[in-house]
Design a protein that fits this description.
Number of helices: 4
Helix content: 25-40%
Oligomer: single chain
Order of helices and strands: EEEEHEHEHEEEEH
CATH class: Alpha Beta
Number of strands: 10
Shape: globular
Radius of gyration: 16 Å
Largest sheet: 6 strands, mixed
Number of domains: 1
CATH superfamily: Glutaredoxin
CATH architecture: 3-Layer(aba) Sandwich
Strand content: 25-35%
Length: about 180
């Protein structure tokens, strides 16, 4: 089911999902060199983003933001995984993702998405993407249109918030910490 917020956002760009949506499990090749399932992340919070390594704008900006969010979370970052799911699995092999993500934080996890797996989970995330291969340049480079939300997932594998690309970092950190604190209460 496509995420449908049941409450108005408390803060611009952050939409709490209440009740939380249990996300379908999936498995993809990971930048760690092994296959990784969403359920492998259970027990920790995750901030997940869909993109591609050749992205000139949203992806590097979001990953740089993830780096700053991780730093701002301080000790709470130890309970958090940062996950980048590629919608361009042809170019974004696990090795390419490992090299790309190391520019931001080598602990970030990259997953090599494929059309079949992404189609199975797109409803959970409201995921939309389109490879613009027909518009490739002479070197074969092409753009990919894609969803730019980040997704806060709790330790039980449930979607807890949609975070817009233009949400403020301090608001994102405060929201993550408030969810962690409420869950611990």
């Amino acid at each position: 089911a496509t995420p449908t917020p049941t409450t108005a956002p408390d803060v611009f760009g952050i939409t709490p999902i209440e009740p939380a949506i249990v996300l379908a499990d999936f498995t993809m090749p990971a930048s760690t060199g092994q296959d990784l399932s969403l359920s492998d992340l259970n027990g920790e919070y995750s901030l997940l983003f869909f993109g591609f390594s050749h992205c000139p704008d949203f992806c590097p900006t979001t990953l740089a933001e993830f780096t700053q969010i991780k730093e701002a979370l301080g000790g709470d970052a130890d309970r958090m995984q940062f996950v980048f799911v590629s919608v361009d699995g042809e170019r974004d092999t696990p090795e390419v993702l490992a090299e790309y993500l190391s520019r931001f934080d080598p602990a970030f996890i990259g997953l090599q998405g494929d059309d079949a797996t992404l189609a199975e989970i797109d409803g959970d995330y409201g995921l939309s993407y389109q490879l613009r291969i027909d518009e490739a340049d002479e070197d074969g480079n092409y753009a990919v249109d894609h969803t730019t939300f980040s997704y806060l997932i709790d330790p039980q594998g449930r979607l807890r918030a949609l975070i817009a690309y233009n949400a403020e970092r301090d608001d994102i950190v405060a929201h993550i910490q408030s969810v962690m604190a409420a869950d611990a209460a």
